[in-house]
Amino acid sequence: MELLTDDQINAELTAVPAWTRDGNSITTVTTRKDFRDALLYVGAVAYLAETAGHHPDVAISWNQVTLTLSTHSAGGLTGNDFALARQISAL
Prior knowledge:
Elements: H1 6-13, E1 20-22, E2 25-31, H2 35-52, E3 57-61, E4 64-69, H3 79-89
């Protein structure tokens, strides 16, 4: 998988406004109703990630879910990260 340029990353970020760049990754924080709802949301994200064969780092703090995407094998951001980010944002 080919790394995206800074210009490509900036263009991709306009399609996923809830996501922000943090170096070689993109991150979103979602607040859910409660812990159970956060877990259900993570389950939906897991389904998308498994289907895509691309997995985010996940952190849960009661009702807040933080997702971080990066293509570790490529050493940064690729089209796969943004494709999954768009799917997650549509949940």
